[in-house]
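Subject: Sanity check before I submit

Could someone independently write out the structure tokens for this chain? I want to compare against mine line by line before I put it in a report. The sequence has 443 residues.
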Amino acid sequence: MSGKLYLKDKLEDDELDLSMMQLTEIPVKEIEQLGNKVLKLNLSHNLLSSVPANLPLLTQLTSLDLSKNQIVGLPENFGQLTKLKSLDLYSNKISKLPVSFAQLKSLKWLDLKENPLVPELAKAAGPCLTKTDCELAAKKVVARLQSIESQLFQEKKKQIEMEEKARRQRERKEEAERERIRQEKKLAKEKRREEARLKDVEARDQVPEQKTAQENGNTKRKQNLQNGHFDHEQKERSSSGFSCLGLLFKLILFFCVGCVALSISLLWLYTDGKMDSDSIQKAVPVIQKDVERNLGVISDKTSKYYKTVEKAARPYLQSAVKKSGALYEKVKKSSSQGYKWLESNYGESVRGLMAKTRELMKLLWRKCQELAKNLLPVLERGWAQVRPHLQNLGKIVMEKCIETWTYIQANFPVYVDWLTATGTSLYKTVQTSVQSVVQALSG
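---
Independent answer below. Compare away.
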């Protein structure tokens, strides 16, 4: 508050005199507190080395005296003092003026003597020995800064235009590169299509030749079989077979081995490790009774569980049937109304659409026929190659099954009898369970 009173003491009319006060910085905030009363500001004969950036906020100033200081430059926003008419910068260390100085169009008096000005600025400022010289200096310096500002604006505009031009060129190059990549992809796709078409043509041409070669091969194999020998190379190919059929054979073999292992384990348990003929004959009836009893228990539990579920679900099923019937009638009625509305409003359009749809389906059917016609030679060629392998594989499977069954009959006759009786009993039990389930459902 004392600073404010102090400045008020220095204010006389519209001029604030702060000269010869050994100031090292300008008290802008305190001056702002005085409001628009301060139109003239005298800061001469102080120790100022710079002008703060907030001084141009005092836009009401018409006269500013900064002479006899050590100021090295003005802030870039100095041009905001648009009402400034008199500016005294005598005896400082200023070499250049900010470009915004060009906005001081109201400036009528300017003193830049005894400043290390650049040659162009010094020439425009002149000696400023008289009032006329200082007035002329204000006009010339402002005009010079306006010229520099215009030049900078043109350069900036030119730079922006160059950047825009470079950006458009980059975009055109990128678009050309993308178009080149698209064309390359298109050509590559067309090339692949052409290669596929040529391969298809070659495959069609090779079909008669392959059929002839297949017939010759079949004739040769028949001759070899009649002579009592078999081609070694054909044997190797037939033994390889197809992986899927080999897998199926392995699964069947694994199942058979598992059944045999389970049976031997049961016999081991029921004979206490004595695998002689007498112990096996005594154990087989016991095993048969235990299996039949367990299957009967499972069948009874399944039947009871089904009856319980059926009893609990019957009301819900009946309700669902009734609701389904009502919903069907409602949907039927809505469909009939919708069909009548569609016929009355869009009958011609729908009929035209149906006609186009039929034409499209006919076209699709013709395409499918053409496709089937093209695929038929390929399928015939594939079947001709697969058929010998399937025949050989079937022969091998049958031989192995016969060998396995013969071995089991020769070494485990009791086990074969037990397996036959157990299979028969299991079939009867399953048949009885199925009949019970059917009777429960019909009831």
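---
OP: Matches mine. For the report I'm noting this point. DSSP finds eight helices and six strands in the chain.
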